[in-house]
Task: inverse folding
């Protein structure tokens, strides 16, 4: 059965890759020339290309070993998006107040991690399901909790507090995270001479969505 392997793709190859988020939008032009636009996807989906990261025979060997162990696209794995992998703004240290993940009601103790993009117009709330273990910090009503006061499921992104926050109390978190992905191809074909000359094949990786 397909599974998810809780292992991160080699970071040195992630840093040389290309990619980012994709949206699916339906655009209809009416007879009047006006447009109607409809978003078909609730969440964006990220895709990446490993090819540009391959610079040596050692890189190719590492890629092939990782690909074979995942059985190509059969099993998922973690991917570090080097431009978007933390709750804080680019270049800033993560803090327990970075992202609002819920509001207390006096009874709920479980809160899924999320990251919000934008603010004034139509902010997008992205579920975070692969936090990096040991990086999550949590605060309730602006007061940071001790690490012993909550638990984090690194495989799902669910934070569980020992005690329910009071009604109306903001629950916030800071964290680093990976993207759950799989290979988007059953085949890898790499010319070693081409790699050394800076010419690489496309090796696509795509975000897993539930």
Result:
């Amino acid at each position: 059965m397909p599974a998810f392997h809780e292992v991160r793709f080699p970071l040195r190859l992630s840093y040389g890759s290309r990619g980012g988020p994709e949206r699916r939008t339906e655009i209809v032009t009416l007879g009047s020339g006006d447009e109607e636009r409809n978003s078909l996807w609730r969440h964006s989906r990220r895709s990446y290309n490993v090819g540009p990261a391959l610079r040596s025979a050692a890189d190719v060997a590492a890629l092939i070993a990782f690909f074979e162990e995942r059985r190509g696209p059969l099993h998922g794995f973690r991917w570090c998006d080097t431009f978007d992998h933390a709750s804080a703004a680019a270049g800033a240290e993560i803090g327990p107040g970075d992202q609002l993940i819920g509001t207390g009601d006096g009874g709920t103790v479980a809160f899924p991690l999320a990251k919000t993009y934008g603010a004034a117009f139509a902010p997008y709330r992205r579920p975070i399901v692969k936090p990096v273990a040991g990086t999550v910090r949590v605060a309730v009503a602006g007061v940071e909790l001790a690490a012993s006061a909550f638990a984090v499921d690194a495989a799902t992104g669910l934070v569980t507090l020992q005690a329910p926050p009071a009604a109306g109390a903001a629950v916030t978190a800071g964290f680093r995270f990976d993207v759950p992905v799989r290979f988007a191809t059953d085949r890898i074909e790499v010319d070693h001479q081409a790699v050394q000359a800076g010419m690489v094949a496309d090796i696509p990786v795509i975000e897993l969505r539930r």
About this structure: The mean pLDDT is 92.
